[in-house]
Amino acid sequence: MEREWRVDLFRGLALVMIFVNHIPDNPLTAFTTAAYGFSDAAEGFVLMAGIAAGLVFLKRLDTGGAPEVTARAWRRAFDLYAAHLLTVLLACAIVAYAASVEGDPRLLGWINLGPVFDDTAAALVGVVLLGHQPGYLNILPMYVVFLLALPMLLPLAATRPGTLVGGSAVLWAVANHWNINLPHYPSEDGWFFNPLAWQLLFVIGLVIGTRLARGLPVVPRSNALLAAAIAYLVVAAVISLDEELIWPSLPLPWFLYGLDKTWLTLPRLLHALALALVLARLPVAELIALIDRRGVLVLLGRNALPVFCAGSVLAIAAQVARFVLEAGVALELALVLGGIALQLGLAGLLAWMDRSRSRARRPAGAATEGGYS
Fold first, then answer.
1. pLDDT one-digit tens code per residue, 172-224
2. How many CB atoms lie within 10 A of CB 362?
3. What percent of the chain has pLDDT over 90?
């Protein structure tokens, strides 16, 4: 439980930053990690998804074996798939309504939804097959792929983690070097989050989660390693804040020095891992928890899927509203803060419903019996 609350806390923080960044150029983006480094909250979210999968599913592997892991992972994958389809449908409804009310057909092309309205038959096939993904709605399809592969990955993470990470790194390098990606039907490009590249970060998180679940060390408690991670983060922040810097072209494979998000290039990967190491070694979680006395971030993190889906829909609605209303700074802040408040309200409602169901399932006399335990 000590480890799980930390994962939920940082996952909740990542959800807030993802929502803020999904309303581009608003004043609060300056307070997210994307403004001060090579990676952003998406890398943190995927890494923590892997850690959470290791913590949760290793218990299933130890108690029920591979069949139970497969059943539960694939059922969770279906839940995410259904949530993604609903989110895309709501995004289409928001954009279509705004275009109808404003009489502005340009809105129909918002966040790459143009194919849905221009070539509906082909686009719907693409949406159902997870090929066509509107902008800002790309993470869940990638996570569905990871959950489908989890029954094969988890036993290796538990027994041969070095082999798994090594094979994952080879797949990452091959996909980057030869530009291998899943098709983005009916378009001719590929997925925005290429699962063949991003799987490396998920696998690293999965290995971390399984080792934490068994009380095993993850990385050496080396002060030199910690200092190197801090130095890397500082250099990345200085580079990111230099608006006049032109990224160099080096005589190396491009994915070893570029900053492409689709392919999770090496600088982004190292930045995410360096940040994770610093957060694990320093008492950052305790400091955030001290500030967040009411546990708002943990509450968001424990309801990650519905909060993420709600945040995605609210972010698109806020983007459209800002465009239609020609919003100034005050309205932009109201849209962002109002969206965060609605997500928090949803998380609170879900937590209250869980508590109510738990009380309803509690057998008569359970409180009395509990007094003797």
1. 999 999 999 999 888 888 999 999 999 999 999 999 999 999 989 888 889 99
2. 11
3. 83
CB 275 within 8 A of CB 39: yes
Report the chain's mean pLDDT, rounded to a whole number. 92
Per-residue DSSP letter, 190 = B
**Is the overall model pTM greater than 0.85, yes or no?**
yes
Beta bridge partners, 183, equal 190
Residue 73 CA, distance from chain mean position:
17
217-241 burial, b at 16+ Cβ within 10 Å, e below that, comes to: ebeeeeeeebeebbebbeebbeebe
Alpha helices in 214-328 (DSSP H): 223-241, 266-281, 284-291, 296-302, 304-325
Token reading at 39: 């990676």
So where are the chain's domains?
A: 2-363
Report whether 297 contacts 288 (CB < 8 A). Answer: yes
What are residue 223's phi and psi, to 5 degrees? Answer: -65, -30
CA dist 222 and 91 (Å) reads 47
